[in-house]
Every structure is written in C-alpha cells, then in structure tokens.
Design a protein that fits this description.
CATH superfamily of the largest domain: P-loop containing nucleotide triphosphate hydrolases
Strand content: 5-15%
Number of strands: 9
Helix content: 55-70%
Distance between the termini: 79 Å
Strand order of the largest sheet: 2-3-4-1-5-6-8
Radius of gyration: 28 Å
Shape: elongated
Structural class: alpha/beta
Largest sheet: 7 strands, mixed
CATH class of the largest domain: Alpha Beta
Length: about 625
C-alpha cells in the first residue's frame, strides 16, 4: 500500500527543492483534472523504500485561493479523493517566518494534519540567526524538521518522521477577512519573539542588496533589456547547431529511404510524409529545451521574480502583468515555447491575453517570407530592406499591444486579482535539477503537441500527392491541394493574388517558411539553389493573371506582409495552444479571429493601393 503525502508552501519557499530531494528522478509532471495547471507526483527514492508517494502542489500564499494555482492547491487539499485526507508537509522559508507562519494558523484552523519543514537553514546559520525550533514546535503544537536544500541535510529525519497513518478528521474550508490576516501577522511576530535567541546577526542580504541596487535601480530596465537580449539570442546560438543536425539527419534518412526504394510510393510516403513530419516536430526541440533552461536559471538564481516586478507597471498600461514579459519576448523566437512559458502566469485573464497575442510576434519562421517579399519591393537596396525588416518587429509588437488593449477592455480583471511575489535572495542554481525540469517540460511538448502536428503535415503532403495517374504524382495544379487553391481563388483575388500564391498560403499552415518553397514549386522555378531566389524574383515580376494584369504588385505584396504579420498559420502553434489553454474553443477561435483580421487587412491594403496608385 502506498502512503500519499502532500507538500504545501508559498512560492520560493524551497518546497520543490525538498520534493526533488525526496523523489530523486522518480517523478512525473501532470495536469490537475479539469485544469491546465501542473503539479508533480513522485515515489520516494529507492533507498528510502517505495511505499511513499509525494504530491508537489503549486505555490500558495493562503488557503483562501485567489489565483488558478492556489485553486488547484485548495482542490488537492479538500476535493481530490486521493489526497484530501493525506498528511501534509508544510514547507516554510526560515528567513521569512513572520509572513509564512500565516499558513500554519490557517492549516490548523482547517483541521489539516501536517508537519512543518523549515528550509534555508544554511542561510539562517550564515547570518547567525538562532531560533529555538524545538520551542516553536511546542508553541504551535506541530512537529518541525530542518532541511538544507543545498546539501540535503535533514532529509532522512524528515522521511523517518512521516506517519504511516493519518487521522480521518473532517477538513473545513476557511474564510479570512483582512483583520484575520492582520491578527495572524501579530500572532506570528509574538511567537517568533518567544523563540528568537539574542545574537549578533550577520546581514547575509548584503550581496542581494548590491545586485538589487543595479537590477532594480535607475538602470534596472537597461540590465533587464541586456539580460533578456542575451537569453533570446542564446536560443539561436545554442539551438541552431542542434536544429541543423536534426534537419540533416532526417534529410539523410529521407534520401536513403527514397534511393533504396526508388519506385515505391510507400517509401516516398515514409520519407516525405512520416520522416519529414517528425523532423517538423523535433526541429523545435532545441529551442524549447534551451528556453526552459534559461528561464529555470533566471528563476532559481532569483532574478526572474525581480524582472516580473520591474516590468509589471509598464505592462499594466496595455492590460497585462509582469509575468507576461517572458512569453511575449519568447514569441519572437518561436510561438511554441512562448505559449508553454505562459504557465508561469498565475492570473487566468493575463494568461489568456498573453497567449492570444503571442502568435502576432514576428517569429523566426516568418524571416524567409519577409526576406522574399521585401526583396521584391526593394530589389537593389539592401539597407532599406534591413531597415524595414527591423520595423516589422516593432510593428508586430505594436499590433500585439493594440490587441492586448482591446481584449483587456472586454475581459475585465477580477476583483480579487493582485500581483504579489516574494523576492528571494540570489542563490546559485542546482544544474542537475534545472536540466531535469527542462527535459521534463520539453518531453511534454513532444509527446502532447507532436502527434497533432504530424497528422496535419501528413494530410497536407497526401493532398499534394493525389489523385495519382499511372502511379505518378499529379501536377500541383491538379492535386487535391491545387484543386482547393483553384476553388478558393475567388477568396484570394481581392488580396491581389491568384491560386498559385493561395496554395502557398494554404501550405504555410504546416509551417510559414514552407511558403517560399511552395511559391517556387507553383511558379515552376527549377534553378539551382544558389540562383533560385534571384530567379523566383524574376518569375514573380513576370507573373500574370489570365487577363494579363500582374499578380505581384506593391499593393498585393504589402497585403501579404500584413497577412503574415497577423495571421495564425502555424498548426504547431494551434496544437500547442489547445494543449496549454485546455480549450479547443479558445484555440480555434483564435485561429479564426487572427486569420480573418489578417485577410481583411490584406484586402484593404491591396484595394486602397489599387484605387489610389
């Protein structure tokens, strides 16, 4: 029989560090039923026996929930059949006893059987703070153990003291007023005074104060910009070699399959359908892994809470909060890891608004599309191309801010919404834990979003291969995809484009960067790779409608640029949105809204240009 224990504590209290020491690597991260909030479950390390299971709940400041994370913790304590009678381990940061003892009083009032584990004891010793925890245990009538998260000291005693049975007491939900919290703070101060031993304390926060004078001072935003720039630039530095390796390995595998079975449709399906689809999933993995490693480092070191507090006020102007800045900036690299990063936003409203505007950020997949279209507009002016290129990034940020403002006016903040975050001391992160957590989150992307991406990519490929004639693939114009393009040409015509460009737009739903190669195929560009871009620009200049009017004009190209800036075409993003939001309605609604706005804007731009120029 397995005995279940629930870990509860405030954010940054050391709860997850204790959990990692208890479970080693034998744990899994899961979603709470009916919620997108994650919590972890794990069995105890083998050297301690395998009959104990631990649940690491989201951090909570109170048993009266104010955020989605706190509501999940409340549900674990009161409603879940597996855990509502489980013994609890309340984790308290020893450096902030006064604020964190409030949870002790609440859990006692709620009738929850629990023990206390005090963390940060190494820092208490470093600043020469001496507290009689044995006396405090008697005062509170709750067992107290001490734990050093850096060395694991105290873990054996904690495990040995866990009861194998728990009293089946009826837990009751509590309701505190502001005055109740004030009384609890006063009671906490009185209890701490009774157990504090007079000593000459050392101020261990000097290092933290010095860094905060830089990071939160007059140049705080400068350091914030530099740190974030380095973080997202490093995604390309570190991930590009691995992404290139993945692409090369799968390209080699595809070529090997096709050359081994040259006349086999099944081999073609495996190489260009299955293998290429797997490559489309795995090519994002290095970016996701390094993003979570970077965010994990900033959070474990203590900087991320400060960055959120720093940027909170400016983001409030456009209806967001401080925790939204990392996901929004991540969107400039790739929307997939950016959406996954919204998990750190406790406000459901802020998380929804952030997730909605992320696809509008100019991700790396748009770069080849922008490059082709801008070269068409400015064929002999590299400086102007670069200048407009940079301007597109600012435009996407501006459009995202406008969208955020509009949504924030529609979706009002709840009355109990607040921004509260403990600013911990700066500490050296534990790399083993960071790597393990980053790998766990990356695996979550591959396992849950991957199948949806693969299915869509395979369907798109099959659409270009049928109907087959004499076991040969049809011309693209005669394929099912081509037929769909012809059918939809009346929709594309107001944008100033024909069915061939329309097929490129449809193909871009697998991945935006596919647009360029699709245009090359539909316009029959067969030049060598190093000349293809030049020849493609020539063909674009010569492309005509049936009535002889040009397909690519300044108006239609500007409309295409606007379309790619706003439209949500990446099905990888849609799959991830379904996974992260837990709502197909929200994900498909976002897909429709952004594409309709992009289409209407492209039509207006083309029609206005045609009318006046």
């Amino acid at each position: 029989m397995s005995h279940v224990y629930v870990l509860v504590g405030q954010p940054n209290s050391g709860k997850t560090t204790l959990y990692n020491w208890l479970t080693g690597s034998n744990y899994k991260t899961v979603n709470y039923p009916g919620s997108t909030i994650e919590y972890s479950m794990g069995a105890i390390d083998l050297k301690h026996g395998t009959n104990k299971t631990f649940v690491d709940t989201p951090g909570t400041y109170s048993l009266i929930p104010k955020s989605p994370d706190e509501r999940v913790t409340s549900q674990v304590l009161y409603d879940n059949e597996q855990t509502k009678n489980a013994y609890c381990i309340l984790v308290i940061d020893g450096l902030h006893l006064e604020r964190q003892l409030t949870l002790v009083y609440q859990m006692k009032q709620a009738g929850i059987q629990f023990g206390i584990v005090v963390t940060m004891v190494d820092l208490l010793k470093a600043q020469n703070t001496q507290i009689d925890f044995e006396k405090l245990s008697h005062l509170l009538n709750v067992p107290i153990d001490l734990f050093n998260g850096q060395t694991g000291e105290g873990i054996d005693k904690i495990i040995a003291g866990l009861p194998l049975t728990n009293e089946n007491t009826l837990r009751q939900k509590i309701s505190w007023t502001y005055l109740d919290f004030q009384r609890a703070r006063i009671e906490a101060m009185e209890d701490i005074e009774k157990v504090m031993r007079p000593t000459q304390a050392h101020d261990i926060s000097k290092f933290t104060k010095k860094l905060d004078s830089l990071f939160l001072g007059s140049f705080g935003f400068v350091f914030f910009f530099l740190i974030m720039t380095f973080l997202f630039a490093s995604l390309f530095w570190f991930s590009t070699p691995f992404s290139d390796l993945i692409e090369n390995v799968f390209a080699f595998l595809s070529t090997k399959i096709e050359t081994s079975y040259p006349d086999s449709f099944l081999a073609l399906f495996v190489s260009q359908g299955i293998v290429a689809s797997f490559a489309a999933v795995l090519v994002f993995v290095p970016q996701i892994l390094f993003l979570f490693l970077g965010l994990g480092f900033l959070e474990a070191s203590g900087y991320l809470p400060r960055a959120a507090a720093l940027i909170d006020h400016p983001l409030q102007k456009i209806g967001l909060g401080g925790r939204s800045f990392v996901p929004v900036l991540s969107g400039f690299a790739c929307a997939v890891p950016a959406l996954m990063a919204t998990r750190n936003i406790s406000s459901k409203r802020d998380r929804m608004i952030t997730a909605f505007i992320i696809p509008m950020m100019s991700c790396s997949a748009r770069l080849p599309v922008y490059g082709l279209l801008l070269l068409f507009l400015f064929p002999d002016n590299a400086f102007l191309v670069g200048l407009v290129f940079a301007g597109l990034y600012f435009l996407s940020l501006m459009f995202g801010a406008i969208a955020s403002l509009v949504i924030s006016k529609i979706v009002k903040p709840s009355r109990d919404q607040f921004f509260m975050m403990e600013l911990p001391l700066y500490r050296r992160p534990r790399w083993r834990i960071l790597v393990k957590q980053a790998l766990s989150k990356t695996k979550s992307y591959v396992v849950r979003a991957g199948p949806i991406i693969i299915v869509f990519a395979v369907v798109l490929w099959l659409g270009a291969q049928f109907p087959r004639i004499n076991n040969q693939a049809p011309d693209l114009a005669d394929s099912y995809i081509g037929q769909l393009g012809h059918f939809m040409e009346p929709v594309f015509k107001p944008m100033g484009i024909d069915w061939r460009v329309g097929v490129g737009l449809i193909s871009a739903f697998a991945a935006r960067e596919v647009f360029v190669s699709s245009i090359a195929v539909t316009f029959k560009v067969t030049a060598a790779e190093d000349q293809q871009e030049h020849d493609l620009l020539q063909v674009m200049n010569q492309a005509k409608f049936a009535d002889g009017t040009p397909v690519f004009t300044v108006g239609s190209v500007l409309g295409l640029i606007f379309f790619f800036m706003i439209a949500l075409q990446c099905m990888t993003t849609v799959a991830t949105q379904i996974r992260e939001s837990g709502s197909q309605k929200f994900a498909w609604g976002q897909l429709v809204i952004l594409n309709v706005v992009a289409y209407v804007g492209a039509v207006v731009i083309n029609q206005v240009y045609t009318l006046f120029f």
